[in-house]
Design goal:
259 residues; mainly beta; Glucose Permease (Domain IIA); 10-stranded antiparallel sheet; 2 helices; 12 strands; 24% strand; disordered N terminus; disordered C terminus
């Protein structure tokens, strides 16, 4: 067996046995658990690609689909919601000046948690919610957990099919796996059918397997956050329940390039 293939086999074996390697990527065992799934329901939702995909292809994020794995013809669009409260910046992939740079329509939300700053990224959107300004150069508009920020699509990447590319970062080039698994897709708890898959000890979800946001009356407000060039007036709150989201009809980094 050639050496590159042997290395790929070893990595795949580690991923599928769920050995967390978060420490390799900077995990310290102290990550805040504050994220909920970036879509309002889990029915038919699966993970197409994990931290790694293919042979030695570092992905640095998760691709969520609504359909069957490896069957792009079955992938459907779905509402994309904020995984946590924060301030937002969005781009269409064509701006000369914006908070974030990326391909296609994409949104980045800046979160303050436990005195630290995190960013969640939502890529390849079909459409960005009208409440979110596109092409601004500062994070000024607030969004709340569960608020619709767009709809999954394939903009900027016409060679693929409809999906959501989701990431969490601490800054430019500082990607983290929200599951603390750092593996191939098969290692992750699929939203529609998590089975016995587990997250790593340093994950960012409120619970594992992660669940969509369900509005509660005692939801704490987002932590204080001033304007910055590295998240948007008040956006109307569209926190929604899963059953309402399913009735919606379909009709946006100064950070590294996304897959």
């Amino acid at each position: 067996m050639k050496r590159p293939l042997l290395l790929a086999s070893i990595i795949a074996t580690i991923s599928l046995t769920l050995v967390p390697v978060g420490a390799t990527f900077g995990g310290s065992g102290s990550n805040p658990r504050f994220l909920t799934l970036p879509f309002p329901q889990t029915e038919d939702m699966r993970i197409q690609d994990g931290w790694w995909r293919g042979d030695m292809d570092l992905h640095r994020g998760l691709d969520y689909i609504r359909g069957r794995v490896d069957r792009p013809a079955t992938w459907q669009s779905f509402p994309v919601i904020a995984a946590a409260s924060g301030k937002v910046c969005a781009g269409s992939g064509s701006e000369d000046r914006t908070c974030i740079q990326g391909v296609g329509k994409h949104v980045m939300i800046r979160h303050r948690k436990d005195g630290r700053t995190y960013y969640t990224y939502y890529g390849h959107l079909r459409k960005i919610a009208p409440e979110i300004p596109v092409g601004t150069d500062a994070y000024e508009t607030k969004v709340k957990r569960g608020q619709i920020i767009g709809w999954a699509g394939k903009t900027g990447n016409p060679g693929t099919a409809t999906h959501l590319h989701f990431e969490i970062l601490t800054g430019p080039g500082q990607w983290l796996d929200p599951y603390d698994i750092y593996g191939y897709a098969a290692a992750y708890p699929a939203p529609a059918d998590p089975r016995d898959r587990a997250c790593g000890p340093d994950h960012f979800w409120r619970e594992c397997p992660p669940a969509p946001y369900v509005p509660v009356e005692d939801e704490p407000p987002p932590e204080g956050d001033g304007p910055s060039r590295v998240g948007v007036g008040d956006a109307s709150t569209l926190a929604i329940r899963a059953d309402a989201a399913l009735r919606l009809t379909m009709g946006r980094r100064r950070t590294p390039r996304r897959a």
